[in-house]
From TrEMBL:
The lineage of its organism: Bacteria, Pseudomonadati, Pseudomonadota, Alphaproteobacteria, Hyphomicrobiales. Coiled coil: none annotated. Residues 7-341 form the NADH:flavin oxidoreductase/NADH oxidase N-terminal domain. InterPro entries: Aldolase_TIM, FAD/NAD-bd_sf, FAD/NAD-binding_dom, NADH:flavin_oxidoreductase, OxRdtase_FMN_N. Its cofactor is FMN; [4Fe-4S] cluster. Keywords: Flavoprotein, FMN, Iron, Iron-sulfur, Metal-binding, Oxidoreductase. In the N-terminal section; belongs to the NADH:flavin oxidoreductase/NADH oxidase family. This is NADH:flavin oxidoreductase. Residues 388-621 form the FAD/NAD(P)-binding domain. Gene3D superfamilies: Aldolase class I, FAD/NAD(P)-binding domain, NAD(P)-binding Rossmann-like Domain. Pfam families: Oxidored_FMN, Pyr_redox_2.
Amino acid sequence: MTSNDPLLQPYQLKHLTLKNRVMSTSHEPAYSEDGMPKERYRLYHAEKAKGGMALTMTAGSAIVSRDSPAAFGNLHVYDDRIVPWLAELADACHEHDCKVMIQITHLGRRTGWNKADWLPVLSASPVREPAHRAFPKTIEAWDIERIVADYASAAQRCQAAGLDGIEFESYGHLMDGFWSPATNHRDDEFGGSLDNRLRFTDMVLDAVRTAVGEKFVVGIRMVADEDFEKGLSKEEGVEIARRLANSGKVDFLNIIRGSIETDAALTKVIPVTGMRSSPHLDFAGEVRAATKFPTFHAARISDVATARHAIATGKLDMVGMTRAHIADPYIVKKVMEGREHEIRPCVGATYCLDRIYEGGEALCVHNAATGREATIPHVIAKSEGPTKKVVVVGAGAGGLEAARVAAERGHEVTVLEASSQAGGQVRLATQNPRRKELIGIIDWRLAELDRLGVEIRYDTWAEKNDVLALAPDVVIVATGGLPQNPPLTAGDNLVTSSWDIMAGSVKPAENVLLYDDNGGHQGMGAAELIANSGAKLELVSPERFFAPEMGGLNHVPYMRAFHEKGVTVTINTRLRSVRRDGNQLIAELASDFADGWRAERRVDQVVVEHGTAPLDDLYLSLKPLSKNGGAIDYERLVNGGDIFPQRNQEGGFVVFRIGDAVASRNIHAAIYDGIRFGIRI
Ligand SMILES: Cc1cc2nc3c(=O)[nH]c(=O)nc-3n(C[C@H](O)[C@H](O)[C@H](O)COP(=O)(O)O)c2cc1C
Ligand code: SF4
């Protein structure tokens, strides 16, 4: 049956038929090995292809030249060795009729000089990019010649690999560095007039077209309005789009609005949780109307309704749902099968992107299979063994995930939850209204458990005998933890935990000191609530910068609130003790750096965040009665085989614990535990 869903209509791009309107825009997940897209990279894209999307734009800023060293695992498209790897990736996606393109670029000033071959960083003019902090040299004629040639040979490699096309990255990189008055101060034939500022782009386009011919799709992901005072204006940006569309040298425009030169600016291009949905969709639609040219765009179009609206109203030809597919690669398939409500939502946590800037690989906060396709399935298969009775204690993110996976395996699952609601620390985090969308992590799992027929017993504080009464084969202890104080020489009973502030059980006082040596969202969430309550707040951290466990993009909204509310941030300082003085408290501060340095603050309230201590009584009481004594065989967890060693012949069941019931960690760790152990039951 043919569908009349606008999202599912095919799109003809030159000679290519894209089977629907949904794509993943280019993003570097940092899964590359040695600059090559090997198995992990391939499986990641192949999963999206299986999930039904029409086009995956691979890589993120694959680099065309050696003097554009990888900033976050970028592919080396300057290296001939990439051709067979790209060919394998393309074949794996083509098998599912998903078209494959790649984004290529010269990063210009958006990288570092002290990487790879230690070659100098360059740009149209020597203007430093604050985010990557390299001082670039002014690009010279011989650089331009070789980089233009590099673009052409990189494009040829992509064509030789059987890809369906390429796009140039032209926002925040070398190419648009020439376009923008903020970064181009030249007075030669590459500066000044728009014609001159487009000269480098024209040279690249000519060289690439000569190299790949007319039949190969060549597009450009371009900024059409830098949206800051000194930057490229909307008028000039749209004019560039018009000229490119009329040039006959490009086949599509992929529209960006904003600048990426600081983390704060980047969050306007790639909004994080709590920021507007689809903020630049109308703008992209304006560019499409002005150019009447194939237009693609992505920026927080996370839900199917908005994506459908983007196509139905003619704002876009192809809609990018990039993080949405990191969270759920099966979006299109679910839409086609009438299972839209089963889509795992992208909650905008931006754990994925923050990780690559911290030198890690992209991982989704609540889909632990993404990027781990070789070992963790997105679609859970039924167990071939006998149906087991599984009891999960605790309905936080990890417990719900374990219950979901065990139920998908076909087991009979019961969840026991001490409180009247599921969600644990995720629900606590959503008490910060800006992060309320995170509740999607819990709500999606509750809906899945409902679909799978799993019973959740609320208001049930499970003791050993309550669990035993259920005659389980497997017990999963997901009881989480309770907040603990940092080590203090005195005043343990005088401090308030960040949890109490988040839960609302203790109101912020007028003058507050918040000490966070955990370094994640927990302390910052409480700080944001306190700041927004109108209190005077000093945030104290022993680290070199506050909240080092969270990445740069998540840092932005907190810092925005701290600046707006006049929060004082004190780093490199420890809380040593707290004592009472009349109606107030004296917080004594110390330094790791200068022995004997002390300072004091007189405040109404001292709030502390030092992670959690595991709530493990139940686990410890069940361990001696279990077959495995709580043990997991880590070798087999990684390499295959039964992960529960037989340590007690008398034991009646298998028990293990996950998430913060083991040790204080984060949402992803709890969910990863839930699935990686759950699939082994
Ligand atoms: C991990 C990650 C890496 C990214 N790297 C790139 C990149 O190299 N080049 C690029 O043009 N966009 C990159 N992006 C931006 C995405 O293409 C997209 O524009 C952005 O995620 C907003 O769309 P979304 O809200 O649908 O995710 C990246 C995004 C993520 C999440
Ligand atoms: S980490 Fe957050 S933003 Fe990234 S894909 Fe997952 S849910 Fe979306």
